[in-house]
Design brief:
There is one protein chain. With about 110 residues, the chain is mainly beta. It is about 0% helix and about 15% strand. The protein has a five-stranded parallel sheet, with no helix packed on it.
């Protein structure tokens, strides 16, 4: 029903997870889920191939799915203030990324 949605903002809402059906929002280009309590992203997240900007800052993420490397048009990725200790190798597939914000995580190395 929301398949034509281009922009989605749900921040400061105590959201703890995303349904696997989020991958059906194939026209989404901007996604702001900052300031929630999300601790994991579904693998279907990688189906959002038209995404250009994602803000997942200030959540409880500990890992990212390998499918994040499928987001071919992504230019902005905000992941600050999470609990990330590693990034998937597939993040290097993000050919158009111009802004990657990783401050205040638990990262000890980069791919």
């Amino acid at each position: 029903r929301l398949s034509w949605l281009h922009s989605l903002t749900v921040h400061e809402s105590k959201l703890t997870s995303l349904p696997d059906a989020v991958g059906q929002l194939v026209w989404l280009s901007t996604l702001d889920l900052s300031h929630n309590r999300i601790d994991a992203l579904p693998y279907s997240f990688g189906q959002l191939e038209r995404l250009q900007e994602i803000n997942l800052g200030n959540n409880w993420l500990t890992t990212l799915p390998d499918s994040i490397g499928n987001l071919a048009y992504l230019t902005h990725l905000r992941l600050e203030q999470n609990w990330l200790t590693t990034l998937p190798d597939s993040i290097s597939n993000l050919a158009y990324i111009t802004y990657l914000h990783l401050d205040m995580n638990r990262l000890t190395s980069l791919p």
